[in-house]
Amino acid sequence: MSHVFPRHTKAKLPVASHGDGAYIVDSDGKRYLDACGGAAVSCLGHSDAAVTDAVRSQMDSIAFAHTGFFTSPPAEALAEKLIALAPGDLDRVYFVSGGSEAVEASLKLARQYFVEIGQPQRKHIIARWQSYHGNTLGALAAGGNRWRRAQFEPLLVDMAHIDPCFVYRGQEEGESEFDYGQRVANQLETEIQRLGVDSVAAFVAEPVVGATLGAVPAVEGYFKRIREICDQYGVLLILDEVMCGMGRTGTLFACDHDGVAPDILCIAKGLGAGYQPIGAMLCTGAIYDAIEQGSGLFQHGHTYIGHPAACAAGGAVLTRLIDDGLVERVTPLGEALHTRLEARFGQHPHVGDIRGRGLFRGLELVKDRETKTPFDPGHKLHAKVKQAAMNEGLMCYPMGGTLDGQRGDHILLAPPFILEDAQLDEITDKLDRAVTTALAQAGAA
Ligand code: PMP
Prior knowledge:
Helix content is 40%, strand content 17%. The chain has 445 residues and is α/β, with parallel strands linked by helices. It folds into two domains: 16-34 and 327-441, Alpha-Beta Complex (Aspartate Aminotransferase, domain 1); 51-323, Type I PLP-dependent aspartate aminotransferase-like (Major domain) (Aspartate Aminotransferase, domain 2), CATH 3.40.640. Strands 4-12-11-10-7-5-6 form a seven-stranded mixed beta sheet, sandwiched between helices. It has a four-stranded mixed beta sheet with strand order 1-2-3-15. It has a four-stranded antiparallel beta sheet with strand order 13-14-17-16. Helix 3 packs parallel to helix 12 (308-323), helix 8 (177-195) runs parallel beside helix 9 and helix 13 (326-345) crosses helix 15. The relative contact order is 0.16. The mean pLDDT is 97. Bound molecules: 4'-deoxy-4'-aminopyridoxal-5'-phosphate. 4'-deoxy-4'-aminopyridoxal-5'-phosphate binds at residues 39, 98-100, 103, 132-134, 206, 210-211, 240, 242-243, 268.
């Protein structure tokens, strides 16, 4: 009997034995092509010698030195590299152990910044529905995934939410994509005015929505308008690139594509690529200076921040992504994947939308293509797709839909950047069979 507490307590999971490039091999020798990076984590696949060597060599000198006492060469080096590549005025890096921690830190930093500069009335955070920012209570409160929030609502602090930029379901007839983007971006201004123009601290959003919507980028002009509104009202812009950052969408930071720089940027997943648990919050020099010239203490912290072995992994990952040119593979590979998905599923009666950017792609499954009606969530179609794909030897990341027309079940794909051309076909073939099986099991095909 296992004493591990799995997330899905009823699931019978295979045992991961070892990694082999883009594959995970289980204890029976079965191979699974990792087409989702777990949850958009494993951007280098599962046997990157450069990263494991970097971690091992750091472990040989020192594994852990508490940041209350020491900084470390890998933390300093990684921060320097990140800042050299980061957009806008981002100037300081606060290392944490994962995505939720990065978001928590950013929410608290935004609040503390305004206290430090004498604007303690700025206390509101605005976020978006249909987003995911993590499972800790602050990040969950910012997130707008109603299913994840539901049973914890009584514990969540009050944060405001506006609509996402979700063109497939939000665009009105006769409205251009650009106008749609401006319309939903302008909800931020309305919300700031409703809450009180000098009472909002920050707006937080994912540049490309991952777990909740399945690789949904904003339309052109949306984030430029968001940046304008934040500037006009003195609101900090926090971008959560925990999933879509670190090259996943073809640029090192997803916001590079939008031509917009945030005041605070959260990254994780791809930063450690799964070789170590690490996340980071990057902030502007202005925010850092306010703390330094004020109280001199960011009132936040965790035991494992700046963990040297984790930072060594991050440094080696960045070398692989930038110096070894792996990020440059993302756009062409992503387009090749999209072309194959379009060819296979473009006319499929139950695939309503194929979307995404770079190696971050999503398919939305619907009961009816014309009306975009989702399947009844009772079918648990997403879970059936996941299981059928695992049976085929494919890892993909499906998520459930809602009946209120907000979204259908979707399948998220986030394969490693080391993918070979033949593996694009393997993904499409196995996914096709998995979707067919799942639809049949749900009585829908
Ligand atoms: N933000 C986003 C956009 C995410 O996708 C996730 C994880 N799926 C998180 C935050 C939370 O990260 P973690 O699971 O590492 O705490």
